[in-house]
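The material for today's practical consists of a large collection of protein records. There is nothing in a record beyond a sequence line and a structure line. As an example, a complete record with its sequence and its structure tokens follows:
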Amino acid sequence: MQNYLTPNFSFAPMIPERALGSRVWGADGREYIDLSGGIAVNALGHSHPALIEALAKQAQKLWHISNIYTTAPAQELAKKLVDHSFGDKVFFCNSGAEANEAALKLARKYGRDHFGGEKNEIIACTNSFHGRTLFTVSVGGQPKYSQDYAPLPQGITHVPFNDSAALEAAVSSKTCAIIIEPIQGESGILPAAQEYLETARRLCDEHNALLIFDEVQTGMGHTGKLFAYEHYGVVPDILSSAKALGCGFPIGAMITTDKIAPTFGPGTHGSTFGGNPLACAVGSRAFDIINAPETLAHVTRQGNKLREALAQIGSETGVFKEVRGMGLLLGCVLSDAYQGRAGEITAAALKHGLMVLVAGSNVVRFAPSLLLDDEDMNEGLSRLQNALTEWLATQ
């Protein structure tokens, strides 16, 4: 097939045509087990009937009306997010990058409004990932994503992830926010230490700064709770959500409190499509299914099974030295002998009809549907075992 898209993506040698649940079929009719979840987006699998129904029903009523107005779907989804989180108010947008952009802008404006113009420094983690806008790619601590776009936004300091001493040394009266992923996603599915998040919360309180949790990947049930911060008992001031929020229909959200939300007065920030009725109708229906106790219990149960099975495969093959993460967001860390070759493993898996991801060059990532059943899991694991056996034979 002729490619008419810009070359910033390296497409896999398979063109998906249709999908259902955790199975995908290519244009050639071949079947694949999807344990990638569209990079943690398809939380309810593909073509979930309840989401199709919600989209079709809303499509017959109202698609777009502009943010001169609010709509029932937007208010309904916002209420659910507020009722089941620390927050009081929600800003809707279309992606995780936009949700983080809003969070960072809100934090800077809050600092300026309440403490003066010098309170603008943002503390972030090395090897973090917060999006691809110029602001968020600058806050993300990976120069490979930002160095080609200099000059970059200033007032951003990076510290090592899970290094509480470095974090404490970096925070000052000029700090307006600390932004952290409770589990670093793109850099290797690395959970934050309890003490690290507690230190971040304490430092924000001491220095009148805001704590931002980027839960674009960890939120909406992937860890076995609606949001990952619930595992830690550390409450942020601002939280970003996207990916699984719409289960494939583009939507992002920033959640914050009544103390901070008034900083975004009329005209201070916006989004043409943010909170559109179609996205919110799908998101609202998805929320009900994801947040159901039986769904979250299933995530924990299946996540434990998947973790144990992956650890067993790692032990038998010698390819993985560690499996880390929470719930159904897991990363298999490559053994020293296979460092830097995660991409080769995902390519080998695809040849055997299995869709998985990388998280950096040393981690194979799994972010399947939260509804993953035993049949699809076991078939996927069987294909992974076969792929690794064949790949190892070529080494």
